[in-house]
Amino acid sequence: MSGLGELYQQLIIDHNRHPRNAGALEDANRFASGDNPLCGDKIKLYLRVANDVIEEVRFEGSGCAISQASASLMTTAVRGKSSADAMRLFKAFHGMVTSPPDAAPNAPALGKLAAFAGVRTFPARVKCANLAWHTLRAALQGEPQAVSTE
Ligand code: ZN
Fold this sequence. Notes:
This protein has about 150 residues and is an alpha+beta fold. About 45% of the residues lie in helices and about 20% in strands. The chain contains 5 helices and 4 strands; from the N terminus they run αβββααααβ. It has a 4-stranded mixed sheet with strand order 3-2-1-4, with helices on one face. β1 and β2 form a beta hairpin. The mean pLDDT is about 90. The site of zinc ion has 8 residues, from α2.
């Protein structure tokens, strides 16, 4: 494994063990829950959006390391962004994890999120990585009912 790959793996392990922005958000005005039944991953996502900017974002979740680290990194990536910018990031992330394993990730746009490029070689894990992002989209679109990756 390359040095960069190891660095990315460390990032995923760290975010799984010490998730950022974990917990409920009392004054959330957007909410969605997501479910990946294939793996048993669950995410509850709380947002406070004002003037179309994601001011605060928190999550509660359980499941595999990929799903929880992805939720943690997603919250750090979208805080302070407009919903349109967050959706652009969603598209870039989704495009990366569903691209062929040998395609170069769009790293400048994705930053640390490029850590999840490795899931492309494990197709069953793509849904784990995408769960938090699908849940984010549902919350921003005002669809609080559970999204499922099925
Ligand atoms: Zn999973």
